[in-house]
Amino acid sequence: MSYYPELRKLYEEQVRPALMEEMGIKNPMAAPGKHQDVINIGLGEASRDPKLLDLASSELADISGQRPTVRRARKSIANFKLREGMPIGVAVTLRGNRMWDFLYRLMNLALPRVRDFRGVSARAFDGRGNYTLGVRDQLVFPEINYAKVQRATGMNITIVTSARNDADAKLLLSKLGMPFAR
6-176 — its CATH code? Predict the structure, then answer.
């Protein structure tokens, strides 16, 4: 997996000083930054077909460049035929260079491949400066081989920032190049 240093360099040389000036921050370490990216694929059907979990795990590893962990059910739900401890999804947490690399590929390669893309929602912040984005199918990522995909699975992508509120986080992400809808 290749590393795109452009986004990290953009943050350190242009975005951080601009944020410091706009927010009136003197210490560069107090400026909002990125902590991690969390990618999650939920597969409720994995309890009945374990092969789905292996396929989703290998696809997520191709997308992220890191081996994902299996997520298990915390409690039993009879209506869903789910017992505590059953595998129900896979997730990966990216930090450092892989985090910057993934965000660059998401914004510049994957999101423009979404059909009828008009930007991502600006209302998907959680109140603490974190942004969550849903992707309906994994085929928007160029690492996925279309011939090997048996079924389209969606994923949730959470971008965890050090911003204290949603306005600061939106400012950070928009300066990094996140294509917010108008």
Answer: 3.30.1440.10
